[in-house]
Design brief:
single chain; 286 residues; alpha+beta; Tetrahydropterin Synthase, Chain A; 4 domains; three-stranded antiparallel beta sheet; 22% strand
Length: 286
């Protein structure tokens, strides 16, 4: 026979266990959540970034891309590296091949090669601009500027810019940094050289103006010569066509015009001699 007292105690024990279970489960869940938040076993990589994985500080081969990733707490640490295109503006002082002082303002666009972000972090760190970019720009600008004269730096600016860009691309690619664009913002020279350039330009403009004036004078002289030749040819043709009859005709025309203008009064002439009447004899002969 089962003792009623035993049944009662067993029932009471079961009820006690059932009452304590929800509390224990809640405690366990709470501890897990606190540990999850404290150790944070995940990492979020933003747009244009890569995550460098470190196991106890050692750089790993795998690189996290954009998005949410899980990590091993305590063991793994994730360092974010910006792989977007960045801009660097540098002022570099150099000397041209003709020993003119040149100050150059250059702009460089570059980015870290995304799948090599771990190597960049391992070999250079996060301060790669100060350690690699700026010194490389300074050295390349000096080296390329020394190949050209000060005047060529102005007249051959596209070639100078391309030479700097290609040289920088080679130097930075060794460090897993790619060059996207390079441009020369401006050159500045010494005051004496600037004044010499301005004087040269002024002289060239004056020489060009003088040449244009000389060309104009030559053209005008040629036009005058052509006109004189045409007039001379016209006179020659007229003389060739003049005959005795034409001369007599011109005399008659001149006498007729004189008669038309005569007022019928003979001129009063004192002294001896005859009264002149131009062409009357010629008219009577006719």
């Amino acid at each position: 026979m089962i003792d009623e007292r035993d049944v009662y105690e067993a029932k009471k024990a079961v009820q006690s266990v059932m009452k304590d279970v929800p509390v224990k489960v809640a405690v366990i869940i709470g501890v897990i959540l606190i540990g999850f938040l404290f150790f944070k076993p995940w990492v979020q990589i933003g747009p244009g970034e890569r995550g460098v994985v470190l196991n106890f500080g050692a750089v790993q081969k795998n690189v996290f891309g954009e998005g949410l990733h899980f990590r091993i707490p305590v063991v793994q640490n994730i360092v974010s590296m910006d792989v977007k295109v960045q801009k660097s503006v540098t002022n570099a002082a150099a000397a041209s091949s003709d020993l003119q002082e040149v100050s150059s303002d250059v702009a460089l666009n570059y980015h870290i090669i995304p799948d090599k972000a771990n190597l960049v972090y391992q070999t250079i760190g996060i301060h790669f601009k100060e350690r690699i970019i700026d010194p490389a720009v300074q050295e390349v600008v000096k080296a390329v500027t020394a190949r050209y004269t000060a005047e060529e730096l102005i007249t051959k600016r596209p070639a100078v810019s391309e030479a700097m860009r290609s040289t920088l691309d080679e130097r930075l690619m060794v460090h897993n940094i790619a060059v996207d664009a390079f441009s020369i913002v401006g050159f500045s020279f010494s005051k004496a050289f600037t004044e010499a350039i301005e004087s040269k330009q002024t002289a060239e403009q004056l020489a060009l103006k003088a040449k244009r004036d000389l060309d104009r004078i030559k053209i005008e002289a040629e036009q005058t010569i052509v006109a004189a030749r045409a007039e001379a040819e016209s006179l020659r043709l007229q003389r060739a066509n003049i005959s005795t009859d034409l001369i007599e005709l011109r005399k008659i025309e001149a006498n007729l015009r004189a008669i038309e203008k005569w007022d019928g009064i003979l001129p009063q002439v004192t002294g001896s001699g005859t009264i002149p009447f131009i062409g009357v004899g010629d008219i009577q002969k006719k």
